[in-house]
Amino acid sequence: MLSFVAIVEMKSLDHVVSLVGALLGCPIAFVFPPLIHNRLVEDPTKWSFGRICNLFVAALGLIGMAFATFTTLSSWNTT
What mean pLDDT value characterizes the chain? Predict the structure, then answer.
């Protein structure tokens, strides 16, 4: 789908790159690592401090992804 958007919006390829960064960069950097860490570390307690911190970082990553996507899409029409 992103490649289709890139072909259609060839004149504003910078927006497509920003959209790819928002939709793929944030989850790869901030969402997936703490969730994978929660799965790899076997913790006897269900809600330990480390597990809660990992979920907090993943939630911040999702908020950042939504904010970056909204910012990119809202600036798309101005150029």
Answer: 87
Q: Report yes or no: 22 and 68 within 8 Å, Cβ to Cβ.
A: yes
Rounded to 10 degrees, the C-alpha dihedral 39/42/60/17 comes to -30
pLDDT digits (tens, 9 = 90+) for 53-77: 999 999 999 999 999 999 988 987 7
**Model-level pTM?**
0.80
CB atoms under 10 Å from CB of 30, counted, come to 18
Q: CA nearest 69: which of 15, 30, 6?
A: 15
